[in-house]
């Protein structure tokens, strides 16, 4: 039992499917691992073990022969604490909702549970999932398993830390400005920000292509397995895509070497990128070239992406927080207050202009991708930073404006609406993880996953997790 946590999700599901291990045994193994590691990293903040065991027993009691190929057969997973799981506390990391019990499950949880996933607990996040460092006034900070003095990033920091330390095999994530990608980078795990609408979701915000749900895992094959479950149409989400979709697990099982890849260490817009982060990206590009891939230093025109992102983000903050702020201002962290007030200060014509600008960015990026199979760039401008720092204000001595400045590389890709995989790229001299974004053309998830599977093998970083917190 003590070794089950070392298995990949695909290995664990294979054992479950062949009944060589039961869901209850995996739950016991995961609980033991959480109890051994969580005091060191604070990744799982609300366990729901009894609920998990009851659900696992129901899965074991039902004998079906019509299960889909991606069925998870009782695999324990973690769900981010901003996502509702019926009957389980869901705080969103806010004192406003510190005692809230979710009356029903979010669409993505419904789909996961219907396909054999067992929710073991809720993973930590920043207050209302806002910010690139996972801390809040309800549960405190999540620490990075690679160095518990460092941040696990955010907002899906609890999910990434739980994966990296072997607490669960899969975890949910949401990505607005990089919330799947930056924790994956900091924790040396893998995550997919899919194209908007690939995973059906509901939330109180405008229906725009900025905020998406996506899978988080330890490697590309596991990520693809989870995405097979999550992807699909739902009538409550007007952006959701009607299938059938290709098998993403099948794509991961057939790694594909790209013909032509562009790479950039700064996308032409980052004011500064840490030297070691640049070096990891360049080393990956050089490995591609040595393996026969045509590699060119290039990037799409993203000059107006930052302004566009911040404006549209401001409009989303109005929807999410303006009414609550009137009553609970004293319970909000200053960054959310500032972003909401920024949104309230926008003129209608500024928001409309940003929506038009995003359309132009999407179209010219799609046109740019006619010449490349993928774009390779760093996930984030820096390596994992001190967890006691709310956010970095400088990188390599260069100051950023505001608390989103160091996240520009993920924010800019968000605006393109392109799918992107964050996967481990290497390590700094001090042993801290550095992640890479592999960006594909619009709606190219299956092909992108096949490319990511190839790059994962080429870079030889897949076997590094799970680890004991250090």
Description:
By secondary structure, the chain is α+β, with helices and mostly antiparallel strands. The protein has a single domain, classed as Amidase signature (AS) enzymes (Alpha-Beta Complex), CATH 3.90.1300. 37% of the residues lie in helices and 16% in strands. It is built from 14 helices and 17 strands. It is globular, with a radius of gyration of 20 Å. The two termini are 22 Å apart. The model has no long low-confidence stretch (mean pLDDT 96).
What is the topological layout?
Elements: H1 9-17, H2 23-41, E1 44-47, H3 49-61, E2 75-80, H4 107-114, E3 117-123, E4 135-136, E5 140-141, E6 143-144, E7 147-151, H5 157-164, E8 170-175, H6 181-187, E9 190-193, E10 212-217, H7 220-230, H8 248-252, E11 260-263, H9 275-290, E12 294-297, H10 305-328, H11 334-344, H12 348-368, E13 374-378, E14 394-395, E15 398-399, H13 408-416, E16 420-427, E17 433-439, H14 445-459
Helix pairs in contact: 2-3, 5-6, 10-11, 10-12, 10-13
């Amino acid at each position: 039992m003590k070794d089950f946590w070392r298995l990949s999700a695909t290995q664990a599901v294979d054992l479950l499917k062949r009944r060589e291990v039961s869901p209850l045994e995996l739950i016991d193994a995961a609980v033991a691992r959480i109890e051994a590691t969580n005091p060191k990293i604070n990744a799982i903040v609300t366990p729901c073990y009894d609920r998990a065991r009851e659900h696992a027993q129901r899965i074991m009691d039902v004998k079906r022969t019509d299960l889909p190929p991606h069925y998870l057969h009782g695999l324990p997973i973690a769900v981010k604490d901003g996502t509702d799981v019926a009957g389980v506390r869901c705080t969103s990391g806010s004192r406003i909702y510190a005692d809230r019990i979710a009356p029903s499950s979010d669409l993505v949880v419904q789909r996961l549970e219907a396909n054999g996933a067992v929710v073991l607990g809720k993973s930590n996040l920043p207050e209302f999932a806002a910010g690139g460092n996972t801390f809040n006034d309800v549960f405190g900070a999540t620490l990075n398993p690679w160095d518990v003095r460092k941040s696990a990033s955010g907002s899906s920091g609890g999910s990434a830390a739980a994966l990296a330390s072997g607490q669960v095999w899969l975890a949910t994530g949401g990505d607005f400005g990089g919330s799947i990608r930056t924790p994956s980078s900091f924790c040396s795990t893998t995550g997919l920000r899919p194209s908007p609408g690939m995973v059906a979701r509901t939330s109180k915000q405008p229906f725009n292509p900025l905020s998406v749900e996506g899978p988080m895992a330890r490697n590309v094959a596991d990520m693809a397995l989870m995405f097979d479950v999550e992807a699909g149409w739902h009538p409550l989400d007007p952006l959701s895509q009607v299938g059938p979709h290709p098998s993403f697990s099948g794509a991961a099982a057939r790694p594909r070497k790209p013909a032509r890849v562009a790479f950039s260490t700064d996308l032409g817009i980052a004011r500064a990128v840490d030297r070691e982060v640049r070096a990891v990206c360049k080393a990956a590009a050089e490995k591609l070239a040595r393996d026969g891939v045509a590699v060119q230093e290039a990037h799409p025109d993203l000059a107006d992406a930052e302004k566009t992102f911040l404006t549209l983000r401001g409009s989303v903050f109005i929807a999410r927080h303006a009414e609550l702020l009137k009553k609970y201002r004293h319970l909000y962290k200053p960054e959310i207050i500032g972003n909401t007030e920024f949104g309230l200060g926008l003129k209608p014509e500024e928001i409309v202009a940003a929506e038009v600008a995003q359309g132009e960015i999407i179209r010219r990026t799609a046109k740019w991708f006619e010449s490349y199979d993928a774009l390779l760039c760093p996930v984030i401008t820096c390596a994992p930073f001190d967890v006691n720092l709310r956010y970095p204000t400088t990188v390599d001595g260069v100051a950023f404006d505001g608390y989103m400045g160091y996240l520009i590389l993920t924010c800019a890709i968000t605006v393109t609406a392109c799918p992107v995989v964050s996967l481990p790229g290497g390590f700094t001299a001090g042993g801290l993880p550095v992640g890479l974004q592999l960006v594909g053309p619009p709606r190219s998830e299956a092909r992108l996953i096949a490319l990511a599977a190839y790059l994962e093998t080429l870079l030889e970083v897949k076997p590094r997790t799970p680890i004991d917190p250090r």
